[in-house]
Structures are given as structure tokens and as C-alpha cells.
Amino acid sequence: MKVSVVVTAHHTEKYLRRCIDSVLAQTLEDIELILVNDGSPDDTAQIMREYDLKYANVKYIDIPNSGVSRARNIGFEQAEGEYVIFVDSDDYMQPTMLEKMYWPAKANDCAMAVCNFMFDYEDGTAPAIALKMPPAAFKTVNGIEFAADVVSQKIYLGFCVFNKLFKTTLLRESGVLFTDREEVFAEDAFFYFQVAALVNRVAFVKEPLYHYCRRAGSVMNSYKPNLADRLAKLLGDTEKIFAIPEMERACSVLAFLFFIDIIMNEIEYKTPYKEIQKPWRHPFYAEHLKNVPLNALSARKRLLYLMYKMKMYRLVYVILCQKAGKELGF
């Protein structure tokens, strides 16, 4: 078996058939599809059973609602492919995606393969390419250095798993699994950070082959309460795992990038400026943003950081409001 595709679903029946059909339409032969119904109250179970009965390479698993992490881990237990990929049930794949990722990874003995992806919007606007790929088709890497570059976004391949093939033996031998969302925020990113430290070679496919669907009401498009605390925990947990200077520097860079996301999260949902000031005083960010390496930031973010250091918080707020196209909430 070449590739195992794990699809977990909870309350996404509207998009599920499109996702499943895109997997079954793959041009790569000898793949399996593992469907996990995470206690969905809609017709997800019925749809998955239908495909399970119709196709020999489809496995169906039904579990009580336990969250995406446990559902993925249970699906992974059944994986028999050389590589495994975790696909979101409201997204879909180009027909050649697995073929164009598997063969370069296989030929170069890569522990991971990554492809570009595109955003699809429900309002019909044109998809946007999300990533920039390095020029090489594959790269030999030092796992720890690669992980630090990933965390700091020096290498940005998306803090997600849906555009990545992982060598199954690497995951099984390392014991890396998805952590429950209750224990760590952004379980995809935390999983990816851990795996990045273990890889030796990575295959890069520049073509956008995965459709990441941005829909109203999805987790990514919803207001995120307590985001400052949740992202601080993600970075704190990452630092505890690695506990090396390179990762400390990487986490300081990501802390500032997250800091901007935190402010934007509040601006998008019209939180008054008085309330937005709370992250300025958050102890985690106050400590981690003391000495962010400027050469790790883009020119625009470098300027924002210098304003932050000079305590020009109101000006930072004005600039981010302009970026979001929102009115000031003084």
C-alpha cells in the first residue's frame, strides 16, 4: 500500500462527498481511504457506510465524539500505507495530488512531502496560492534546525497537516501522535513541529494541489476566545519539548507573529481598544518579545516590532485596523 488517507468528520455532511470523491479519484494506484465518523449528529455515518460498502479500499470507523485529534489517531492505527496524510472533510484534493507527492518522496527516501495549496472561498472569489516553495525538488535537512526554521516561519509550509505526506514508519517508531485540543491549542501545528524535528529529507511540490475551503462558521473563520493564553501554551509546550537555544529564538519570533494575530483576532470582531490592550501586558509575551531577532522579520513586521518596543501601542493598533479594513475602536 502506497498511501493511507485519513479523513475524520464531525458535522460536515454538506462537504463530505466532495472530499471523499476527490480521494477516490486520485491517479495514484494502491491507496486506501480511512473514514472516521467522530460522533457526528448529521448523516455523516450514513454517507461513510455507503462508501465503505461500495469500495474495497475504504475503511469505516465510528467513534463517539472525541475531537479531531483522537479521531485522527484512531484512523492512523489502521493505516497500512508507506505514507499517510490527514485530510479535512470539508476540503478536497486535485486528482494528481498523491501521485505528484508520493513518487518524489519515494524516489528520494523522504520522510515528508509537502505540496502547495490554495484557498477556496464560498463567495466564489478566486483561490489564492498560500505558500512559496523552495527551488529544490527535495532537500536534506537537520531535523532540529529544520524544526526551528519551521517554528520561526523562516521555512513556512503551513502550520497544517493536510498538505503533507508523512512516512508511516517515522510516526510509528517515534510515537508522535496528535494531542487533544483541550491539552494544546493548534494540534496540527504542535504535531507538525514535533515531526519536523525527526525528518531527514523533505520533498517539495510547488504546484497547489489541495483546496483549503474557507467557509463561514468554520474553526479558522470564527472568533477565537482567550487566543493569547492558548497560543502562549502552544509555544510554551513547544519550548518544553525541545529546550534548546535555537528553539527559544524561534519561539520568540513566532511569539511576535502570534501577537499580531491576537490583535487582529480582536480587531476583526470589533473588540474595543481598551480590551485589546490586555495582550500588551500578558506576561508570556512581555517576556518573549524582549529580544526578537530583527533579521527574522519582514520589513513591515520589523517596523511593527520596533513600535511595540517603543510602546507605541496605539499606532500599532491603528496600522492593524487599516490592514483589516476596520474602524478604530477608541
What is the average of the pLDDT values? 91
Proportion of residues in β-strands: 15-25%
Share of residues in helices: 40-55%
Low-confidence stretches: none
Over all CA atoms, what is the radius of gyration?
20 Å
Helix segment tally: 13
Cα(first) to Cα(last) distance is 59 Å
Number of strands: 10
- SSE string, helices as H and strands as E: EHEHEHEEHEEEHEHHEHHHHHH
Overall 3D shape: globular
Structural class: alpha/beta
Largest sheet: 10 strands, mixed
Task: Describe, in plain words, how this protein is organized in 3D.
The protein is α/β, with parallel strands linked by helices and 330 residues long. Helices cover 44% and strands 19% of the residues. It has helices spanning 13-24, 44-54, 68-77, 97-107, 143-152, 168-174, 187-196, 227-242, 245-268, 273-276, 283-288, 299-309, 313-324, and strands at residues 3-9, 31-38, 58-63, 83-88, 92-93, 112-121, 128-129, 138-140, 164-167, 201-214. Strands 1, 2, 3, 4, 5, 6, 7, 8, 9 and 10 form a ten-stranded mixed beta sheet that branches. Strand 1 (3-9), helix 1 (13-24) and strand 2 form a beta-alpha-beta unit. The chain is globular and about 60 Å long. The mean pLDDT is 91.
How are the secondary structure elements laid out?
Elements: E1 3-9, H1 13-24, E2 31-38, H2 44-54, E3 58-63, H3 68-77, E4 83-88, E5 92-93, H4 97-107, E6 112-121, E7 128-129, E8 138-140, H5 143-152, E9 164-167, H6 168-174, H7 187-196, E10 201-214, H8 227-242, H9 245-268, H10 273-276, H11 283-288, H12 299-309, H13 313-324
